[in-house]
Automatic annotation (TrEMBL):
Entries under InterPro entries matching the protein: Glyco_hydro_68, Glyco_hydro_beta-prop_sf
Sequence similarity: Belongs to the glycosyl hydrolase 68 family.
Xref: SUPFAM superfamilies: Arabinanase/levansucrase/invertase
Keywords from the UniProt entry: Glycosyltransferase, Signal, Transferase
UniProt GO molecular function: levansucrase activity
EC numbers on record: 2.4.1.10
Protein name: Levansucrase
Gene3D superfamilies to which the protein is assigned, alphabetical: Glycosyl hydrolase domain, family 43
Length: 542
């Protein structure tokens, strides 16, 4: 009897192996077909489901009024296209994702743009209302989260300050590190912490945002002020408190560089409401940050803001819906909401929020419903931004591999969605997946951590993060970790600039840019000169 069972078991194993090999062969064939298809032709209207995977959700790109109660969904059917495009036979330490959706590999011998002064990570440019990038009196200016290099690299988040860099505009040959000069901190000490009613915070920090220049030399910085209330052992005395804040100052320049004044007054504008955007009472680990403001040409006279949030459910509530799944009727690879919640997917509730300014000073704002939700798909849609091209509205955001919900996988990098307005039934780019530009990753192996990369992972898994899409499709990010567990280096400076080609619902890595797709280090060019007299300013006397 035992022998017969052994034989039966062996036959079953052989049968299962044959099925798995056939499935792998089918996926490999489909992956090869994807790679062979011209990128521009890839849109969800013509996408054929990869064998073994569902079809993506159909999205219309239809625009709605910005104040309408409609939220587009990045569904599980959409996000599962990432794994469908991944090569299941990719060996250890090799990228398993299509090259056209992957950032080129960054070398380990990178220069430090701050000359060993500060860690540098999330960065953004000086912009106008249309998100174009002006120079100021002959200088290009970039804002970054910075922290003293005496701190450990992974301690930087809780001690982040907003700093700035400058370099001469329109210079043909620059030093390897991009030619940037660190200008120092933007806000006076203590300014960003003054808004909190409870001043007993253990530490207080400044997180990402955006910077607008107005007439003359007026700057308004929109950012995230955060207070932590922690015990000496690192546990929370009470939940952390993030606020979206605006501060106004002035920028000056002469032949020797750039400086700034003001920024003492801090306008506490938005706090997660618990109605559209999850708050601390619902989840002490909620996300609420990263304001990006812009003027929509379709709505003259109005200024809008997108930001990262979480959908306003109580933590642990079984909140996944059939619409979050997004499967077509009869799709054989459908998951039910209950099935994914049984795996814990309801703990991932990312969304992209929208607000509209109610005064000209841009200090008063009104929440609007989210423009995108990723409920039961991912928990973070960081640093969202609106990008206009060819009459289309692109929503770009960034996310991590480790923040995906159970049963979904995708790389660190940029995710994109396209529609006909700032509130649209956004279509995820690139075969309906949403993946626009991922770091080289192998979805067949564990993710690891930046401080301990998996040995089998592609060395570029954590090479870059916090990508910011600039005019002309240029993309800037910072270096986190390059390498695997046997040899890796930590970053803390800006990565080489790369470029993406944006054509309808297709976004691809431009390998003709720079050297095999990698441009110069921290190359953030201005597009025009700000309209102000070029007369050098007089430096203040200390």
């Amino acid at each position: 009897m035992r022998k017969q069972n052994d034989v039966t078991t062996k036959k079953n194993r052989v049968g299962r192996l044959a099925v798995r090999l056939a499935a792998v062969a089918a996926v490999l064939a489909a992956t090869a077909a994807i790679a062979a298809t011209p990128a521009y032709a890839q849109s969800t209207a013509n996408v054929t489901a990869v064998p073994g995977y569902p079809a993506p959700t159909t999205h219309t790109q239809q625009a709605y009024d910005p104040e309408a109660n409609f939220t587009a969904k990045w569904t599980r059917a959409d996000a599962r296209q990432i794994k469908a495009m991944s090569n299941p036979a990719a060996p250890s330490r090799q990228n398993s994702l299509p090259e056209e959706y992957t950032m080129p590999t960054v070398p380990q011998d990178f220069p430090d743009m701050s000359n060993d002064q500060v860690w540098v990570w999330d960065s953004w440019t000086l912009t106008d209302g249309s998100s174009a990038q002006p120079s100021f009196k002959g200088w290009e200016v970039v804002f970054s989260l910075v922290a003293d290099r005496k701190l450990g690299f992974d301690d930087r988040h809780t001690y982040a300050r907003l700093g700035y860099f400058f370099r001469k505009a329109n210079v043909a040959d620059r030093p390897k590190n991009g030619g940037w000069t660190y200008g120092g901190l933007v806000f006076p000490d203590g300014a960003s912490g003054a808004i909190f009613e409870d001043q007993s915070f253990s530490h207080q920090t400044e997180w990402s945002g955006s910077t607008r220049i107005f007439d003359g030399n007026k700057l308004r910085i929109f950012y995230t002020a955060v207070a932590f209330y922690r015990n000496p052992d690192g546990t929370n005395r009470k939940p952390y408190d993030p606020r979206i804040v605006q501060s106004e100052g002035r920028i000056f320049a002469d032949d020797n560089g750039v400086w700034m004044t003001g920024f003492r007054d801090q306008h506490d504008m938005l706090k997660a409401d618990g109605t559209y955007y999850q708050n601390a009472a619902q989840n002490e680990y909620f996300n609420f940050r990263d304001p990006f403001t812009f003027e929509d040409p379709a709505h003259p006279g109005k200024t809008y803001m997108v930001f990262e949030g979480n959908s306003a459910f109580q933590r642990g509530a079984r909140s996944c819906t059939k619409e979050d799944m997004g499967y077509a009727p009869g799709d054989p690879y459908t998951e039910t909401a209950d099935q994914v919640m049984d795996q814990g997917a309801h703990y991932q509730l990312a969304n992209v929020g929208l607000a509209v300014a109610e005064n000209k000073a841009l200090t008063k704002w009104k929440f609007l419903p989210p423009i995108l939700s990723a409920n039961c798909v991912n928990d973070q849609t960081e640093r969202p931004q609106i990008y206009l091209k060819d009459g289309k509205y692109y929503l770009f955001t960034i996310s991590h591999r480790h923040t995906y919900a159970a049963g979904i996988d995708g790389p660190e990098g940029v995710y994109g969605f396209v529609g006909n307005g700032i509130r649209s039934d956004f279509q995820p780019v690139n075969r309906g997946s949403g993946l626009a530009l991922g770091s080289p990753s192998n979805l067949n192996f564990a993710v690891g951590k930046p401080s301990a990369p998996d040995y089998n992972q592609d060395p570029g898994q954590f090479q870059a993060y916090s990508h910011y899409v600039m005019p002309g499709g240029l993309v800037q990010s910072f270096i986190d970790t390059i390498g695997t567990s046997d040899k890796f280096v930590r970053g803390g400076t800006l990565a080489p600039t790369v470029r993406i080609n944006i054509n309808g619902a297709d976004v691809t890595s431009d390998r003709t840019y720079g050297h095999n797709g990698l441009g110069s280090w921290a190359d953030i060019p201005s597009g025009y000169a700000h309209d102000i007299a070029q007369t050098p300013d007089r430096r203040p006397v200390n």
